[in-house]
Design goal:
Largest sheet: 2 strands, antiparallel
Number of helices: 11
Radius of gyration: 29 Å
Strand order of the largest sheet: 1-2
Number of strands: 2
Number of domains: 1
Oligomer: single chain
């Protein structure tokens, strides 16, 4: 198993060590800031690489939204035959080149990285090297602290009050950002749909409540460094989704309608300004100044 995962350990630890080398002269080699920023840098690099998957996720979600009427017809037509209903659904997805599981692709793609980071950080606590995180880097990482909590320790594996407080705060932030990101998508980013027998909407509702609970329960077993990683990636997801919803919303969604209203209002103001400029230009044309003649300023009369 280790032989298969070794390349992944090398990649994860190699990126962290490379960022650590760049930041060590600024914050110090053993500083918790250096190691925390190294983990955050790993997140940024991974999320940049995953942007094509995120774009595919958005396209798939929008395609599924457009297919909702056809999906409802299939559900109604084959309501008594589940197998036929599933076959027709799969045929519909294939025809329109979409996948209902595309929304999970970014999470699934990060899973191996997440597991590798978990193993690498657990190795720090057990003084077990993985990949490039060995020797002086292993000793340095073991000493690094995030707000007083060693980055390799977990909520259940430590008796320190500081570790428990930091992990609880990170778990709460991780769960909170997961919930708000999903709710942002459902409230602003999705078209208004009939909730009765709507598979996509039901899937979104399950994700809204299930993922935060999973993070809250499993987070007590994660090292502080892994919690930093997952909190950072959740924050990235929230910001990335906020940008897409605001700048390129799904047609029919509340965000799309709001953008259309803003554009219509802006077009109205631009047209009004153009009309105002035309009136000023026409006024100037009616009373042209005599070239070469300087207009004398009017003198104010003195009061007696």
């Amino acid at each position: 198993m280790n032989v298969i995962l070794n390349p992944l350990y090398n990649i994860v630890s190699g990126v962290i060590v490379a960022i650590h080398k760049a930041l060590a002269p600024i914050f110090g080699a053993n500083s918790g800031v250096t190691w925390a920023l190294s983990i955050m840098g790993l997140v940024v690099l991974i999320r940049i690489i995953l942007i094509p998957l995120f774009v595919k996720q958005i396209k798939s979600q929008r395609a599924l939204t457009a297919l909702q009427p056809h999906m409802k017809e299939i559900q109604k037509k084959y309501k008594d035959d589940r197998q036929k209903q599933s076959e027709e659904m799969m045929k519909l997805y294939k025809e329109h080149k979409t996948n209902p599981l595309a929304s999970c692709f970014p999470v699934l793609a990060q899973a191996p990285i997440f597991f590798a980071l978990f193993t690498v950080l657990n190795g720090i606590a057990k003084n077990k090297p993985h990949g490039f995180l060995k020797g002086e880097y292993l000793v340095s990482a073991a000493q690094a602290k995030f707000f007083g909590a060693p980055i390799s320790e977990t909520f259940l594996g430590s008796d320190k009050v500081t570790v428990k407080i930091v992990t609880v705060l990170l778990i709460a932030f991780m769960s909170g950002t997961t919930f708000t990101t999903q709710r942002q998508l459902m409230v602003k980013g999705m078209p208004k749909m009939d909730s009765s027998n709507n598979m996509m909407l039901q899937q979104q509702k399950i994700m809204l409540y299930l993922f935060p609970v999973i993070f809250a329960i499993s987070g007590v077993n994660f090292p502080v460094g892994v919690l930093i990683y997952w909190s950072t990636t959740n924050l990235w997801t929230w910001g990335q989704q906020f940008y897409v919803i605001k700048r390129n919303p799904t047609p029919g969604s509340p965000a799309y309608e709001e953008l259309q209203r803003k554009r219509a209002h802006k077009a109205k103001l631009d047209a009004k300004n153009e009309d105002g400029n035309t009136d000023i230009e026409s006024t100037e044309e009616q009373s042209p100044e005599i070239q070469g003649q300087r207009q004398q300023p009017k003198k104010k009369k003195k009061k007696k």
